[in-house]
Design goal:
three-stranded antiparallel sheet; single chain; Methyltransferase, Methionine Synthase (B12-binding Domains), Chain A, domain 1; Rossmann fold
Length: 299
Amino acid sequence: MNTIKTSFSIKDLENLSGIKAHTIRIWEKRYNLLEPERTNTNIRTYNLRSLQKLMNISFLNSNGYKISKIAALDEFQIASKVKEISYQGHTESHAFNAFKLAMLNFDQALFYNTYNRLLEEKSFREIFYELFIPIIQDIGLLWQTLTITPSHEHFLFTHIRQKVLIHIERLQSANPKPDTKTFVLFLPLNEVHDIGLLFINYELLSRGYHTIYLGENVPIEDLNLINALYDNVTYISYFTVKPNLGDVENYLTKLYSEVVENTTNSVRLIGPRFKDSKPKKTPKQMKIYDSIKKLVKDL
């Protein structure tokens, strides 16, 4: 089955471009910038070409071009002007749109070309914080609003994940032997969203720390195997969709009693799940963060 989305509502365009539907309608009427098709019930629909043009218009507009001036250009002139500006160093918003288009078209070449262009100007860490984290957050919203399908999300996350793994591998051979402290990174049962945790592992390795990456689907009981081998362990976990909302408090209680209590161990927690279910009180050896940057800075 063909899963490429080729038809978009005006609400989809708003979600993907960040331009309000009301503004899109005004641009259509006043400047004829887009030419939507109409359903039998007179509802606007747009194709991928229209979406790409709108994203390019948004990019030029955010870089100081007036809509009236953009409207005087044809589609190819608009694309050429976008490329010209992006080569002058205004790459972030252009790259952000390019990653979205790569996702919608399942276009691996566009993803890699965009990423490699960014690497000419930025470090991998800067790319992750400035582009990958915002786009991951944005993709979550697009999925929730049915603008994209799970296949689109998986495509983009898989390619971002590959980039994180490449940079981890470069550091792994220099991973130091444990001395006084060990970081253990794991995801709870049925949690499979590991990009954030992988990047934290990268950050720790880049700072010369010893890490043990257990990955997804780890039962709390298995962490006792680590306790038997190492002292003063810092456990790090990332909650995206698990544990279930009503189970977070009980999970943390069990984690503390079985892994942390009566030890010098500590736990560092992060993830969207805590926005919906933040524990009223956590033991002093447990701490919850609202960003990767804050968590890493505190270690």
